[in-house]
Amino acid sequence: MKKRKRLFLQSMLMLLVFVSMVFTNVSGAGAEASAAGGPGKPVPPGKNGLDSQGRMVANFGSPVIDGNVDKVWSKAQAVSPPHGSEKVEATATFKALWDDRALYILAEVKDKHLSVKSGTPYMQDSVELFLDENNDKTQEYGLDDLHFRVNYENAQSVDNGQSERFYTAAKKVDGGYVIESRIAFKTKPEDGKVLGIELQINDAKESERIGTLNLFDSTGSAWNDTRKFGEIVLSGKSKGSVNGVSPYDLLILIKSTLKMDFTLYKNPGVVTDALMNVIASNVLNDKQATQQQIDEQVAVIKNAIGKLEMTEEAANEKYFKAVPDEYRMESNRPGTIETLTYKAPNLTNGMDDKKLHVYLPNGYDPSDTNKKYNVLYLMHGGGENEDLIFGGPGQSKELKKILDNMIAKGDIEPLIVVTPTTYGGKNDPALFHEELINNIVPLVETKYHTYAKSASLDDLKASRAHRAFGGFSMGSVTTWYTFIHNLDYFKYYMPLSGDSWVLGQGGGASKAKETAEYLAKVAKDAGYKPQDYYIFSATGNLDIAYPNLKPQIEAMKQLTDSFIYSSDTKKGNFYFIVGEGGTHAWNWVNQYIYDILPDLFQ
Ligand code: FER
């Protein structure tokens, strides 16, 4: 082994030993802080520990997040979740504290049967935290809204928000478990501030969730509606209150840095050097360490990560990139949503009335016949419908904002995005390709300025390089069918979190090789070369579809005369993004779309 490589591995090993020591015994810094926490006014008495307005109350104090319930928690009032589904066997109490950097939630759960058997995080015995930091009670999750989960083995999952704001410790105790969690504030808090919050216990038995316990939401829909949250008021900070020194941002950063795959980089040493610097600085072991010293080490590591350079081989892989916050904000150059109605043949020789929505980019001018637009057709998942992605005219849901911003910043050319539904008509993802090419594409592409000269099949074929189809879950299943049946009319495919069911449900896993061969044969038989079609796929490693999609993708990678794997669309026609922590949810899917859009229509 080369000397440099051996040195590198040695230093990584030292770091691992060091960090695991720190993690089992979080630095004294926090412990000092808890003792020095503010005096705190007594919590106003009310029903179930809530205040007179029915709000949870967080007192000022900085607990150590290590799974041990330290003294500072006695300053917090316990509340019990009153909303429980019938079969729930668990009981729980929650407490809250806050300081200048974070909100702390303690959950003490009594539950005799603990299970993490399900592969679906919310079906494991776990605690869910929902936060609406600016308490604006938007229905849809906005930039300030978080939805985190952690199970009794301290495995975290993130449905909304950045994982680096979440630090937890879990401990099994007699008859149940304890979760201590810390959510870093995005906006500096102050005494008297009111935030939106919901707290939930998932009670699992074997691989099922038998029910939930909820503090405020009795409808079970806080996961997609922040209006269902209750409130928490920050109190108890007085003049003498001292904020605890907080090592958590540094700990989270070290942990995520150690998880990085250093083989992807030419110069991993810049990061190991930075990590060694943290050890040398001793801030994590030093009870006297100041917040400034800790924050400096955070900056050192972040700066080093910024200097990493990928190897050429690694650059072939397409990596998940989160949607930046500014892309989730309302653009000052918004597009518009229109609704079209049409008739489509059903299974009983009749016609169904159906509708779809069309996103028109900012600046789209019906009278300008010179300008032409590419079109992306985008399909919802099972049980959803044509309203899911854009709502309707006048609405500005997450993906619309992302599209508006990407176009406004010049990341992508202005395009048209169409959201139909597989429900109604022949009511079947396997048959949708007929309605798609006979009804939907002609309707859309003769009404709007697209590259289709007319609705004739010849003209639709001639314009295939300007047409893409994508979808989520069942919409991804539909996308693979579109590839199989409509390859003549679509050049770009974006199957997200769903495998091909052409050889049966879940065929991407049970018949991975055969499915890949089937898809390759479709293209070959139709006379297409790899540069004539592009497949950009994505899912998350925690997505329920991952075990179905991943084997199919791996099998496709083997068929190198049909599917050439590369993040570089000049070299290949196929890639697969895996979002670390990604679940089967639109918040993730919209990010995959953000990552893939710049590669469509190239
Ligand atoms: C998958 C493809 C589709 C998958 C699930 C679906 C679990 C959709 C299911 C549904 O909507 O009922 O690979 O994996």
UniProtKB/TrEMBL annotation:
Keyword Iron on entry: no
Record-annotated Carbohydrate-binding domain positions: 65-236
Gene3D superfamilies: 2.60.40.1190, alpha/beta hydrolase
Signal peptide: 1-28
Positions of region (Disordered): 33-53
Keywords: Signal
Keyword Signal: yes
Recorded superkingdom: Bacteria
Protein name per UniProt: Carbohydrate-binding domain-containing protein
